[in-house]
Amino acid sequence: MGSESPTQHYFRVAHVIHLMDVVKRWDERTLVGKMELTVGRDLQYVRINGTLVGGLVGLLIHAATQLAAGFDLLAILHGTN
Questions:
Q1: 74 domain-assigned
Q2: pLDDT tier, 2 (very low <50, low <70, confident <90, very high otherwise)
Q3: Residue 79: which region, alpha, beta or left (left: phi > 0; alpha: psi -120 to 50)?
Q4: Mean per-residue pLDDT for 44-65?
Q5: Using only C-alpha atoms, what is the Rg of the chain?
Q6: In terms of residue numbers, what domain contains 50?
Q7: 23, 33 in Cβ contact below 8 A?
Q8: Disulfide check for 8: which of 4, 14, 26, 47 has CB 3.0–4.6 Å away?
Q9: Are 81 and 75 spatial neighbours (Cβ–Cβ below 8 Å)?
């Protein structure tokens, strides 16, 4: 960036401003469609990983509550078990 001429910098900034104007004119459906085309594959991995991790955490919580329900913790604490 430091080695570009002022003219090059001007055209790069003008290009960015043009792109911003184009994106501002997109409606929600167009914007979502463009984003899904660009990052859709990555989003699918995020969805799959989230499902798997959420399922595993849910199973661990369920297992822990079932294990805890199998123990009479008050009896263990009072030594009557």
A1: yes
A2: low
A3: left
A4: 93
A5: 28
A6: 6-78
A7: no
A8: 4
A9: yes
